[in-house]
Amino acid sequence: MVDRLNFIVLLLAISPVLASQPLAPSPVEAPLRDLTWGQINFLHTTDTHGWHAGHLQEPSYSADWGDYISFSTRMREKAEANGQDLLVIDTGDRIEGNGLYDASDPKGEYTFDIIKQQHIDLICTGNHELYKRNSSENEFNINVPNFGSSYLASNLDIMHPETGEQIPLAPRFKKFTTRKQGIRIMAFGFIYDFTGNENNTVIQPVEDTVKETWFQEAIWDREVDLFLVIGHVPVRSPEFLELYQAIRKVQWDTPIQFFGGHTHIRDYKKYDAKSFALESGRFMETIGFQSIDGLSTSTKTVQTSAAPKFSRTYIDNNMFSFHHHTQLNATTFPTEHGQNVSKEIRAAREHLQLDTTYGCAEQNLWMFRAEYPSNSSIFTWLEQRVLPDIVVDKNRMNKSRLAMVNTGGIRFDIFKGPFTRDSAYIVSPFTSGFRYVKDVPYDKASKLLTILNNNGQVLQNMEPSLQSWMLAPIEQRSFSTHVFTQNVTVPHNEDLQRPLLSEPDLTPGYTTKDDAGSDGDDTLHTPIASYRVPNVIQSQIDPPLQSGDPETIDVVYIDFIQPWVLLAFQFLDLDYSIDDTAIYMEGENLTTLLAKWVTANWKDNC
Ligand SMILES: *[C@@H]1O[C@H](CO)[C@@H](O)[C@H](O)[C@H]1NC(C)=O
Ligand SMILES: *[C@@H]1O[C@H](CO)[C@@H](O)[C@H](O)[C@H]1NC(C)=O
Ligand SMILES: *[C@@H]1O[C@H](CO)[C@@H](O)[C@H](O)[C@H]1NC(C)=O
Ligand SMILES: *[C@@H]1O[C@H](CO)[C@@H](O)[C@H](O)[C@H]1NC(C)=O
Ligand SMILES: *[C@@H]1O[C@H](CO)[C@@H](O)[C@H](O)[C@H]1NC(C)=O
Ligand SMILES: *[C@@H]1O[C@H](CO)[C@@H](O)[C@H](O)[C@H]1NC(C)=O
Ligand SMILES: *[C@@H]1O[C@H](CO)[C@@H](O)[C@H](O)[C@H]1NC(C)=O
Ligand SMILES: *[C@@H]1O[C@H](CO)[C@@H](O)[C@H](O)[C@H]1NC(C)=O
Fold first, then answer.
1. What is the distance in A from the centroid of ligand 5 to the CA of 253?
2. Distance between CA atoms of 429 and 449, rounded to whole angstroms?
């Protein structure tokens, strides 16, 4: 404890630390832990999902991609001044989840050029880039050329957009030597064994890739000081374990550093004393920092008995942290390039009118921070207030209906204050509309929700590819593994708080526990509780004047969950197929409907 406190620096000096987006809130000053630098240092982003403008309603994450460009530049300058190296990594899911990407037509009109401005040393693809033909072709046509040999695709092919020929999306691996230290690195870029991709891409399961000749040759290379495996892969996953074991089988003690993603959490896994994996959260909330010290280099061999030192820090994405870690201030920190990119983001947001306000929320509505059901739960709000108003088809309005939405279709909280065009995309970024099956016997339809929510046992046994936990938000998957042990999570961390009671109040935020302990977050925060949510929520909507339950009812659902709904019908001995389904509310999706609801109901709160 005493040791740890030595690293805590209280920053009390008040200096202007404005982030570059005009509406971005200033970060709140907070006690920070210092970084431990090494021979080689890394900055890591993952699952940014279009949040390149930063968070305009949360001071802790208010820096934008331009600020991050200044940060990585200053960090590299600092490293190189000390003869050390710094590499920048991104592990995919750069798209879908924020107006900056989703609100343009075509989608992503502005984001490719913005992302390209960052000097990224290693980059790979996430599952979101592969759901639609167009987005994977955009990777191939735009991002791969933009990043050249830094873009890796170890287990991912694409059908060439013109010739149809199956080819690697990008190079399979990269061997290079770092500039300052001369560390010889063998790098790979993976995606987990994802199967929901459009058929113009092909993902090879990791267990097959490790048997490929090119992979075996690469890992047999003895002239390697560090294996670097980046991937859109959770750090606690069978895929990373397979890669770890494959490399360890032939290189018993060469250090291995993994950078992962996909589950939207901060996490750090130790495989052995020389192998660690870092996952750096989501949505531009976190810049992951990793350092390694004590590696062999092309000119200096370190005894194998000496384990290198690995250190990780989860940096809150705000200017206060950026200034602290670079030891610079508002005058000396920004680079012209970073400021130009912030301007570019600002211009894109203006073109897309993302600040257009539909209405104002009277209170915060949480996905996980409030218990479900409760009046602070975004899902209770949807169920009780929104769905009954929006799920109305002019041709079926006199018919009772059950409206179902999967909780994973909602991606973010709603904050008290303006609900903008951007908010609509942030809360509901998917293009999903509604579909329905008409006149379903009520006694059976009323059992659907239980089946969809019983943790998948029923459906999973019928069809292994349709597990019902897939319907819940991705963050919840890690709740059951190690970060969260029960539905009420993140216990009060007294260790961290007691010595600081006399210090300025801490703000709520990440208080991560991982394989290296509980000192990983750069900013000291008070913990935030997290509650479990069901896979699917439902509203029964009856026409006026109806009394009692109807005999038959329309089952209306967000189209993403159709395979699960049809399977659940099958379990109930109802023989419906896709031919029995039809569009409900032509031309609308959850995003447009939410925007209309807010306009009609929250306009007066502003
Ligand atoms: C696909 O993306 C390209 C490049 O951004 C764009 O020109 C095209 O209109 C998009 N097509 C669709 C169907 O969105
Ligand atoms: C891929 O899917 C499209 C429909 O999205 C279909 O028309 C095409 O035949 C499929 N191609 C292959 C090779 O299966
Ligand atoms: C920033 O740091 C520089 C150099 O240390 C100093 O001259 C300047 O006054 C500082 N500016 C602010 C706004 O604190
Ligand atoms: C920043 O933008 C200005 C004005 O467009 C341009 O002259 C300058 O070269 C840019 N600087 C960098 C480093 O990109
Ligand atoms: C929500 O608030 C309403 C009235 O404000 C109350 O009647 C209801 O019981 C509350 N629901 C929950 C789940 O707390
Ligand atoms: C629904 O009922 C109302 C009132 O009885 C009627 O005016 C309207 O035409 C009905 N709509 C449909 C689609 O049947
Ligand atoms: C929902 O539909 C509208 C209108 O068709 C479209 O502009 C919008 O992009 C769609 N929402 C999403 C998240 O794609
Ligand atoms: C949370 O857990 C408690 C006990 O562990 C249980 O009583 C409660 O019903 C759970 N709440 C939810 C929303 O699952």
1. 59
2. 24
